[in-house]
Specification:
By secondary structure, this protein is an alpha/beta fold. Strands 5-4-6-7-3-8-9-10-11 form a 9-stranded mixed beta sheet, sandwiched between helices. Strands 1-2 form a two-stranded antiparallel ribbon. Helix 3 links the parallel strand 4 and strand 5. Helix 2 crosses helix 3. It is globular.
């Protein structure tokens, strides 16, 4: 994400009060030793102050916890972005959300608009879209991104997708340790959930591939799977440090928007809904069937 793209983000200031600073030791360091240049990264709690440390609060109960990094993984075209847009729009009804569209900002825009029309909701000023990647292997750019994001105090940051934000990085290499460090840095400094979309599942749909740091240094893993013969997707929490939500079956509904494209005409985009809320009749067309007809 260039500095120009970051500067173009529409943000709403909604800063929450900072947590109280832990007790400080005013004892001067021994002669010959210098204090660290920047002690702020270390949150040291002494004695009774240890009781101030609380478990992460839930942003979406059973799915996402504030101040953590979560993975949303599954094969291509499984509906990861559609589910992420659904989560982002729901959170944006109450808190700041920053959606990094690293691959296709226009497509995410269409999905956001389709969600708004289907749910009869106005555009939330809490929602901001970054049209382009944030280079997670570039520490300077990560710092710039954090500084820009502070103005809206987001509770949710979506990275769509991880691969678009780590160009040239081998996901199976130890370089991923640096990437996960920066993801956790973003989460820690902004006090937000960082939801990362990725598709590192092997052919069986269950086995994770990629460097172990991606699993070991994240808090939650959500897996999206779908049946080629049906337009339903299954969202399952396979790892979460806390009570997990039950597996949820969702259906992707195609909704026309009011966005006109000179080449495509009026754009349509999928919206995720719980399958038990969708009445399917003989006239129902799935996302794939609609794409074939178009």
């Amino acid at each position: 994400c260039t500095n120009t793209a970051i500067a173009a983000m529409r943000m709403t200031a909604r800063r929450n009060g900072a947590a109280p600073n832990p007790p400080q030791d005013d004892t001067p360091p021994p002669a010959g030793r210098q204090p660290p240049a920047d002690p702020t990264p270390f949150r040291i709690f002494r004695g009774d102050a240890i009781d101030q440390i609380a478990a992460p609060r839930q942003l979406i109960k059973g799915y996402l916890s504030i101040g953590t990094v979560a993975l949303l993984i599954g094969p291509s075209e499984a509906g990861k972005s559609t589910i992420a847009v659904d989560m982002a729009n729901k959170v944006a009804q109450h808190y700041g959300v920053l959606y990094v569209a690293g691959e296709d900002g226009a497509n995410v825009r269409a999905q956001i608009r389709a969600w708004e029309l289907l749910h009869n909701k106005p555009r939330s000023r809490n929602l901001a879209l970054v049209d382009g990647p944030v280079l997670l292997n570039n520490d300077t750019q990560v710092s710039t991104f954090i500084s820009a994001a502070r103005t809206m105090a987001p509770r949710l940051i979506v990275i769509d997708t991880l691969s678009s934000c780590i160009p040239g990085v081998d996901e199976n290499s130890s370089d991923m340790s640096h990437i996960t460090f920066n993801l956790n840095r973003i989460s820690d400094e902004l006090g937000a959930v960082v939801l990362v979309l990725h598709h590192p599942l092997k052919y069986d749909g269950e086995t994770f591939r990629g460097h172990s740091s991606l699993l070991n240094n994240t808090h939650t893993m959500l897996v999206v799977s779908h049946d080629e013969g049906d337009e339903t997707v299954l969202l399952k929490v396979t790892r979460h440090k806390g009570k997990r939500a039950a597996p949820t079956t969702m259906r992707l509904i195609v909704r026309s928007t009011d966005i006109f494209d000179p080449d495509e005409g009026i754009l349509s985009a999928p919206v995720a809904l719980p399958a038990n809320r969708v009445l399917v009749n003989d006239d129902y067309l799935s996302v794939r069937q609609t794409a074939i007809l178009q």
